[in-house]
Amino acid sequence: MKFPGRRKLKHYFPVSQPKPILPTSEVQPDKDTYIVGLDETIVDVVANVSDAFLDKFSIKKGLSNLVDADTAVEIFAELTAEQCISDHFAGGTIGNTIHNYSVLADDKSVLFGVMSANIGLGSPAYHYICHTSSKVDMNHLQGVTGDIGRGITLITPDGERTFAIAPGDMDELNTDHIPESIVAGAAALVTCAYPLRHQAKPIKQAMIMALKHSRQHNVPVALTLGTTHLVEEHRDELLELIKEYVTVLAMNESEAEALTGLSDPLAAANRILDHVDLVLLTAGAEGMYLCGHTEEALKRETTNPIKSGHLADFNRWEFSRPMAKSACQHPIKVFSHIDPYLGGPEKIRNTNGAGDGALSALLHDISANHFHKEAQPNSTKHLAPFLAYSSFAQICKYANRVSYEILVQNASRLSRGLPEREDSLEEAYWEQ
Predict the structure, then answer these.
(1) Residues 203, 338 within the same domain
(2) 44 labelled as ligand-binding?
(3) Which of 106, 225, 395, 432 could cross-link 255 (Cys pair, CB 3.0–4.6 Å)?
(4) Is 93 known as a binding-site position?
(5) Has residue 17 been placed in a domain?
(6) Which residues are the signal sequence here (predicted)?
């Protein structure tokens, strides 16, 4: 067969030159910018139910409830019979976060966890992989003989979400599947407090090992608190973990109150800053707070309206960039707040994953700083050891926008990226 067009004699890839290296989905620590997440791998089954349904199965509303395998089968059978199930989604607070990160950054991330060694069509593992970004590197997952977890998200008419969780083998992750080199090369490690519920399971020690590797290699650690009930049960152990390992602590207002005893979100964030470098606190209709530290000599005053609450004029220095407290000679606390984007969605179908979306935006900014520092180490952006690329105020805007995208859809994960971030006058401080 004769192909159309004129033939060129010159090879496109001369045989005398090395063959081009094809892109790989597996993370290369010496070349890639990425974050690492450690999670209980779980699939969310989303269903709309009545309060009476929760009472029937003794499920506490608004909390994360562990149920045995038999109860989970009963719940699932009734939901199927009543046609209450709206969809299956890959879940897990950290799984959501790193998926969203890879969508936002259009770049790689790594997941530590377990996965069914044999994946059947329609199984929880099948749904998990189908709903996770292809840029999430799953090559380091630990194979297990059983199922990953199944979390049934029960949404009542008032919009409140309640979880009934059948763990499966999701807590069997062991220390053999926490490669130090992958953690050492990461821009950040993100994990959650849920493994503290399972003292006798391998996943807790796997999490501790990942935290130790992060501390040894100066990798920032982000921790999410999970649920109010978990914080109340493990408060002392959680505080010790936070003080020893955590850089960024993410939570909602009720979890912050359980940790500090303070009902005012700003007061709670102020208290928590005694132990960590950054606090991301989502407060529902009140909006979002991002609080941290910066160097006194590098503080930048906002041009936004000044706000007062538990602290007077608390957002005055929100155009500053976050720094680790230990990296500051004269550290000051910085607070930023933002109202819900566009006042919040007209109708919130599901709040599951909104906080995870906000954290993924913050982690994207942290990894952007890591990437830029590697690529342009002499840039004025790196005159000091900043934790993030942007200011407190700008990160708030980004995180708020991502949360909004989660709230307007009926899924806990982003299905696409966002439009480019809005520019603001404060960027002029750092784009010189």
Answers:
(1) no
(2) yes
(3) 225
(4) yes
(5) no
(6) none
80 annotated to a ligand binding site: no
Q: Is 261 annotated as a binding residue?
A: no
Q: How many CB atoms lie within 10 A of CB 85?
A: 14
CA distance 47 to 156: 9
Q: What is the distance between the alpha carbons of residues 93 and 257, in angstroms, rounded to a whole number? A: 20
Phi, psi of 71 (to 5 degrees): -65, -40
Domain containing 339 equals: 238-412
The whole-number pLDDT of residue 354 equals 86
Cα separation, 228 vs 287, whole angstroms: 19
On whether the CB atoms of residues 352 and 282 are closer than 8 A, the answer is no
Helix (H/G/I), strand (E/B), else coil: 248:
strand
200/377 Cα distance (integer angstroms)? 45
φ, ψ (nearest 5 deg) of residue 153 = -90, 115
Q: Count of domains in the chain?
A: 2
Assigned domain for 149 exists: yes
Residue 419 lies in a domain: no
For residue 423, the model assigns a pLDDT of 46
Question: Per-block average pLDDT, block size 10, for the chain (432 residues)?
Answer: 55 57 73 94 88 91 82 83 84 93 94 92 85 93 89 87 86 95 96 90 96 97 93 94 97 95 95 96 91 96 92 94 96 95 66 87 96 92 94 95 85 74 46 40
**Is 150 flagged in the annotation as binding?**
no
Mark whether 242 and 276 lie in a shared domain. yes
Q: Give the C-alpha separation, 372 to 271, whole Å.
A: 32
- On whether 255 is known to bind a ligand per the annotation, the reply is no
Strands (E), 100-174: 109-112, 114-116, 136-137, 142-144, 149-155, 161-166
258 labelled as ligand-binding? no
Put simply, whether the predicted model's pTM sits higher than 0.90 gets the answer no
Please count the other Cβ atoms lying within 10 Å of the Cβ belonging to residue 285. 9
Amino acid type, 387: L
374 and 406 within one domain: yes
Predicted local distance difference test score (pLDDT) of residue 12 = 55
Any binding-site annotation on 283?
A: yes
